């Protein structure tokens, strides 16, 4: 809880510098949401892998959001439901090439996809994040996350990653 509070306090220091509606001097695109169609577990796994590739590897956030339903349920307490709040928050952050992402673990067990990854460039310390997504047919319908930094004077000597 403390780590996630610190994380988002860190972000509130970064985001106002961007100015409204602009990233790198360009206007913010509007995401086109996913329309739910039936999908098998195998199809959902393929869509999850595509979503992960677009979001965390290619960092093409507008394209990644085309897999998220308009009425997305968001459990991150700093964001509202629906895609607009999450997009406006995540687009400047994940489009920034100074912020790096390293995927550590990934699991898909329909209808849930899990991604554990390392982020550098947001806070002074590298940050571990676990995102959990629930699919509804072809679309991401719900999201939870857990965010962790290594504490000063950690009890366990293992590296966080
Ligand atoms: C990108 O991230 C770096 C490192 O955190 C930060 O210094 C810079 O201000 C960010 N740029 C934008 C446009 O957000
Ligand atoms: C799936 O999406 C449809 C269409 O938006 C909605 O009616 C339904 O409640 C959703 N189901 C679940 C389990 O999220
Ligand atoms: C970490 O340990 C050092 C040495 O015992 C101590 O001086 C420091 O206050 C500790 N820092 C925190 C944040 O606990």
TrEMBL record:
It comes from Mycena rosella (Pink bonnet). Keywords: Signal. InterPro entries: NTF2-like_dom_sf. This is SnoaL-like domain-containing protein. Residues 1-25 form the signal peptide.
């Amino acid at each position: 809880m403390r780590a996630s509070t610190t994380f988002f306090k860190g972000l509130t220091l970064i985001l106002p510098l961007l100015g409204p509606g602009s990233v790198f001097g360009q206007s913010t695109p509007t995401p086109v949401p996913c329309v739910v169609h039936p999908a098998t577990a195998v199809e959902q796994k393929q869509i999850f892998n595509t979503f992960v590739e677009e979001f965390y590897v290619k960092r093409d956030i507008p394209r990644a959001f085309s897999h998220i339903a308009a009425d997305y349920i968001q459990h991150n307490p700093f964001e509202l439901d629906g895609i607009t709040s999450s997009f406006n928050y995540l687009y400047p952050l994940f489009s920034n090439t100074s912020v790096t992402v390293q995927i550590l673990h990934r699991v898909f067990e329909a209808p849930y996809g899990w991604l554990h990854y390392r982020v550098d460039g947001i806070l002074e310390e590298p940050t571990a994040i676990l995102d959990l997504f629930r699919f509804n047919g072809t679309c991401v319908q719900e999201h939870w996350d857990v965010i962790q930094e290594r504490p000063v004077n950690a009890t366990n000597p293992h590296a966080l990653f």
